[in-house]
Amino acid sequence: MTAKRTPVIDGLFSDTADGARLMGSRCATCNVPYFPRSELCHNPDCTESRMEDASFGPHGTVWSSSVQNYPPPPPARYDEPYEPYALGVVDLTDGLRVVGRMAVDDPKTVKVGGKVELVIEPMCTEADGTEVTTWMFRPI
Amino acid sequence: MRDVAVLGVGMHPFGKFPDKSVTDLCRDAVVAALSDAGMQWRDIEAVAAASSRFSGGKGWGLNGNDVVEDMGSTGIPVYNMSAGCAAGGNAFNVGYALVAGGIYDSVLVVGGEKMPKGFIQTSGVEEETDPEFLRQRCVGMPGPSFWALLCRQRMEEFGTTEEQLAKVAVKAHQVAVHNEYARFRKEFSLEQVLGSNLVSDPLRLFEICPVSDGAAAAIICSAEKAKQLASNPVWVAGSSVATMRFDDGLPRGLAGVVPPGRSYHSEASLAVEKALAQAGAGPEDLDFVELQDNTVYYELAFPEDWGLCKPGEAEHMLETNETLPTGKMPINPSGGFLCFGEATTAMGVFQVCELTWQLRGEAGPRQVPGAKLGLGQTLGLGGNATAVVLKR
């Protein structure tokens, strides 16, 4: 039986038939992408803010990575006992540089410059067994 | 604009002081600065204070008001400045502007902080509209991991080694041994630094600054006032504040635009460029620098951003001892944040103290020989940065 799942925050990401997507927006004037959604284009060189809903992913390249060796302070969430996880900064092909956890078993295996895909994976579990999901990057 | 002098500086040693309040720490710094300037409390016409996030200030960052009530309520104006870890530098800039603009003749700049235990929690706000909250809740990447991500990127780009990172910490402790205000005054070997626990791979415990309690104060005056009290004061050659640019490529919130070029720490670069331009100086004219070394990474990245050396050459400068007080480009002769620990909002004023002592030739065994022009720089949450250039 599959565990029940719930997103850590509603409306930030979704799973589609073509892979995971981050839900954001893009300015129709200057083409700048935003995640999460933005009401206004923040580009000071843009002549007119024309924000439209847009989704991003799933393909990208690792710009940098690290390991969260110690349990992070609140409001971060994790299951006990704490297991260090890998963090990544990924440049999506959509032109967005995004932070996220890496979906890898061994955090030391992440390669800077490596190709990854966006996935939605559990980050911790509620007391009733519900898995709390977030976006992550999996090497391909 | 009028010329502005730094007439007096004072500091409370950095460390952990469970029996003292932040006002106690500030009092020591202010009394020392007044004595150093040869002034009385009644001579101070205004206060520019860093707002503490963690202590005192009646819970509203009103730390300057705490200082004024403690020293004696003379009715003077108080400006409480908030800019994350750049707040001390921000307060200095506001104090400088008030004197340079002719509003006041003598201003006290003060910053103090008592820090809670452990790593700084980056957000106290639990709102889904706050990007810092989302970043911690959805990803879980506290301050040190941000530095670790920048550091790993540098290692990939320039081939920086773990030994070179550790050597920055070894150098910091080598000079801090000579600073009576520093919290850690003990030398560490390369092996000891490399043997300390990984906090956020590739950064180790001894390669990031801890948090400390501490306070620092500076009294700045118009030239007219300064000349009544000192024959050869230290002058403010440049003071600036900047915020980050839209094209900055660092991963700050959840996401940003992939920048067309290499544009990192843009707020710090902007602040430093502005302060140097105001001073009519180039990076090559600087005799020494006090930069914000929350982590060893910054001591390698910033000198390149500011033109103190070419990109990829910071490691060579370190390994040839050019960043020691006796080298060609001394960096953090105080021992820096690594050896003081960060009393967040005090740090911009802490740097003004060290710059002043160095320029007066009062820094003892950590003295930069013949120091005439020095730069201080801070960086704070929210894309804040400040820079100050002092000269003798």
Briefly note the structural class of the backbone of chain A. mainly beta
Instruction: Kindly name the structural category of chain B.
Output: alpha/beta
Overall number of strands of chain B: 12
Number of domains of chain A: 1
Biggest sheet descriptor of chain A: 5 strands, mixed, barrel
Query: CATH homologous superfamily of chain B?
Result: Thiolase/Chalcone synthase
Q: Biggest protein-protein interface?
A: A-B, 47 and 41 residues
Annotate the secondary structure layout:
The complex is a heterodimer of chains A (about 140) and B (about 400).
Chain A (H helix, E strand, L loop, with lengths): L4 E3 L5 E4 L2 E9 L5 E2 L16 E6 L2 E10 L16 E8 L3 E7 L12 E11 L5 E9 L1
Parallel strand pairs in A: 1-10, 8-10
Antiparallel strand pairs in A: 2-3, 3-4, 3-5, 6-7, 6-9, 7-8, 9-10
Chain B lengths: L3 E12 L6 H16 L8 E5 L12 H9 L6 E4 L5 H14 L5 E8 L17 H9 L3 H16 L3 H15 L13 H6 L2 E4 L1 E2 L8 E10 H7 L4 E10 L11 E3 L8 H14 L8 E3 L5 H10 L8 H6 L16 H5 L6 H14 L12 E8 L3 E8 L1
Parallel strand pairs in B: 2-3, 2-4, 10-11
Antiparallel strand pairs in B: 1-7, 1-8, 4-7, 5-6, 8-12, 11-12
Provide a concise account of the structure shown.
The complex is a heterodimer of chains A (140) and B (392). Chain A is mainly beta.
Describe this structure in words.
The complex is a heterodimer of chains A (140) and B (392). Chain A has 140 residues and is mostly beta strands. Chain A has one domain (5-139). In chain A, 0% of the residues lie in helices and 49% in strands. Chain A has strands at residues 5-7, 13-16, 19-27, 33-34, 51-56, 59-68, 85-92, 96-102, 115-125, 131-139. A five-stranded mixed β-barrel of chain A has the order 6-7-8-10-9. In chain A, strands 2, 3, 4 and 5 form a four-stranded antiparallel beta sheet that branches. Chain A starts with a strand and ends with a strand. The model of chain A has no long low-confidence stretch (mean pLDDT 96). By secondary structure, chain B is an alpha/beta fold. Chain B is 36% helix and 20% strand. Chain B has helices spanning 22-37, 63-71, 87-100, 131-139, 143-158, 162-176, 190-195, 223-229, 266-279, 296-305, 314-319, 336-340, 347-360; strands spanning 4-15, 46-50, 78-81, 106-113, 198-201, 203-204, 213-222, 234-243, 255-257, 288-290, 373-380, 384-391. Strand 6 of chain A pairs antiparallel with strand 5 (198-201) of chain B, so a sheet runs across the interface.
